[in-house]
Amino acid sequence: MEGEIHNFIVVWTIVLASLCYSHTIAKFIPKGKSRFVAIFPIVCLFLILPLYLTSINLGCTTSFFIAWLATFKILLFVFGKGPLSSTPSLPLSTFIPLACLPIKFQKYSTSDNVETTKKATNSTFNLVTKIALLATLIRVYNYKDNLHPKIILFCYCLHIYFMLEIILIMVSATVRRVSRVELEPPFNEPYLASSLQDFWGKRWNLMVTNILRPTVYDPIHSMVANRISRKWAPLPAVIATFFVSGLMHELIFYYNGRLKPNGEVMMFFLIHGVALSVEIVIKKIFNGKFLVPRIISGPLALSFIIFTSFWLFFPPFLRGNTELKACTEFIAFLEFIRYGKLISPTNITCPLL
């Protein structure tokens, strides 16, 4: 455990130093190929650093923030695009958190006070609700032996959703108070999605959506718009976006479990890319003349997502005993809080699994 914490500190020290370098080098090298050559080693470094962490809680968060978000934001910055590019240049105190955290800079004004207070109240209520639901869900695990495996997988879906929202809401509140920047909302009530397009584009994991759009979707859309009808240009852009998303998920799964990828996660995202493309085609053909009622389209979309996740997403996720590692690590953390002693998660038995 001591070694993992030491590696975690070293990794993030290197990340901070690398971002300082990237921020400084941009003052002397203009955007474009020259800046790409100067910053490309940082991109490679960010893809390597997560390999030095083996825990689920520290490694998963670090790999997502560094290997995915920071890498893509830095690549946009190389060409003068994305949230890190600004005129005048962003101060280092803003550049670093924007680069490695899923946040957006928010300027406060007097007219925003009411809206900010309303958001804070809603955020607090949402946090309390999600904690209560997660606590209830954890109690359900006590009856795991009596539940159907598919029900357990559905509980894992809810667990991941609740945990992500709880963590990011708590971090959001802290960051908002300390540095006056606000985390982008990670989700927008995905259970209310009316279609696959609504789910993936406007409700689920908005941090990833907002970074994939300028790095993959927009460039591919612009490239193919000159070769095919602009009406159908979104289709290859959608497929390319889901392909890159699948590739990054395969990479993060490898960071967490160190298991050789077998393509299941990639297949999951490609299937959804194709299904979403079909949905777009149907919408364009009918052009609003025929609409499936939301009460039907919503459950159908969610059922398709859940079915395919049971089939392709969760098997590789659970193959490396991810849920067991996460549980023992959390118990080890609680033991440290209670007794001030670092205990290796390998010496702990999870009572829920």
TrEMBL record:
Major subcellular site: membrane
Molecular functions per Gene Ontology: O-acyltransferase activity
Key word Membrane present: yes
Membrane topology: Multi-pass membrane protein
Residues spanning the membrane: 6-24, 36-56, 62-80, 147-171, 232-253, 265-282, 294-314
Domain of life: Eukaryota
Location of this chain's protein in the cell: Membrane
Biological processes annotated in GO: lipid metabolic process
GO CC terms of this entry: membrane
InterPro entries: Wax_synthase (IPR044851), Wax_synthase_dom (IPR032805), Wax_synthase_Magnoliopsida (IPR017088)
This protein's UniProt keywords: Acyltransferase, Lipid metabolism, Membrane, Transferase, Transmembrane, Transmembrane helix
Domain Wax synthase: 184-270
Family membership: Belongs to the wax synthase family.
Protein name as annotated: Wax synthase domain-containing protein
